[in-house]
C-alpha cells in the first residue's frame, strides 16, 4: 500500500501588524454636547435616596406650549410591592412573583391558611 503525504507550504512569513499603525481605542470619549456642570466624574450617587418619598407619591409639573401648567399626581397602588434589585433578577414581572408566592402558599398547612382567611375577612383584606 502506498502512503500519500501532503505538504503545506507557505510562501513566507505572514506579515504582523505594527503597533504604530494600529489605532488605539479611546477609553473615555469626550462629549462636546455635555455642559461642564453635568460632569459627574468622581461623584457617587446614593441608592434609594428618594425611595421612601416615592412610595408616598409624587407630582409632576408639565409646562404646556400655551404657557399653562398641568400638574399630574402619581400615587402608587396600595397593593404595590417593591422588589430589591437582586430579587428582581429572578422575578422580572408580576406573573413570576405571583407564581412563586402561590407555590409557597401551597406549602402552608391548611390550619394556617384557614386562620389567614379569617384574618383577611376580619380586617377587610382580599
What can you tell me about this protein's structure?
There is one protein chain. The chain has 126 residues and is of the alpha+beta class. It is 29% helix and 10% strand. The chain has four helices and two strands; from the N terminus they run αββααα. A two-stranded antiparallel ribbon has the order 1-2. Strand 1 and strand 2 form a beta hairpin. The termini are far apart. The relative contact order is 0.05.
Spans of at least 5 consecutive residues with low confidence: none
Cα gyration radius (Å):
32 Å
Content of β-strand = 5-15%
How would you classify the helix and strand content by structural class?
A: alpha+beta
Strand order of the largest sheet: 1-2
Query: Shape from CA axes?
Result: flat
Major sheet description = 2 strands, antiparallel
Output the helix-strand order.
HEEHHH
Average per-residue pLDDT, rounded, comes to 77
Give the distance, in angstroms, between the N- and C-terminal Cα atoms.
Answer: 87 Å
The percent range for helix content is 25-40%
Q: How many E-type strands?
A: 2
Helix segment tally:
4
Which features does this protein show?
126 residues; two-stranded antiparallel sheet; 4 helices; flat
Short description:
The protein is α+β, with helices and mostly antiparallel strands. The chain has four helices and two strands. A hairpin with a 5-residue loop joins strand 1 and strand 2.
Layout of strands and helices, then pairs:
Layout: H1 51-56, E1 58-63, E2 69-74, H2 85-88, H3 94-105, H4 110-123
Antiparallel strand pairs: 1-2
Amino acid at each position: 500500500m502506498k502512503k500519500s503525504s501532503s505538504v503545506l507550504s507557505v510562501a513566507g512569513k505572514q506579515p504582523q501588524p505594527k503597533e504604530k499603525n494600529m489605532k488605539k481605542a479611546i477609553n473615555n470619549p469626550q462629549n462636546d454636547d455635555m455642559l461642564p456642570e453635568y460632569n459627574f466624574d468622581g461623584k457617587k450617587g446614593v441608592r434609594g435616596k428618594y425611595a421612601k418619598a416615592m412610595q408616598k407619591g409624587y407630582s409632576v409639573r408639565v409646562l404646556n406650549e400655551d404657557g399653562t401648567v398641568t400638574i399630574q399626581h402619581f400615587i402608587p397602588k396600595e397593593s404595590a410591592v417593591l422588589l430589591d434589585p437582586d430579587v428582581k433578577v429572578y422575578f422580572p414581572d408580576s406573573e413570576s412573583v405571583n407564581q412563586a408566592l402561590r407555590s409557597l402558599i401551597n406549602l402552608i398547612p391548611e390550619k394556617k391558611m384557614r386562620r389567614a382567611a379569617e384574618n383577611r375577612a376580619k380586617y377587610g383584606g382580599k
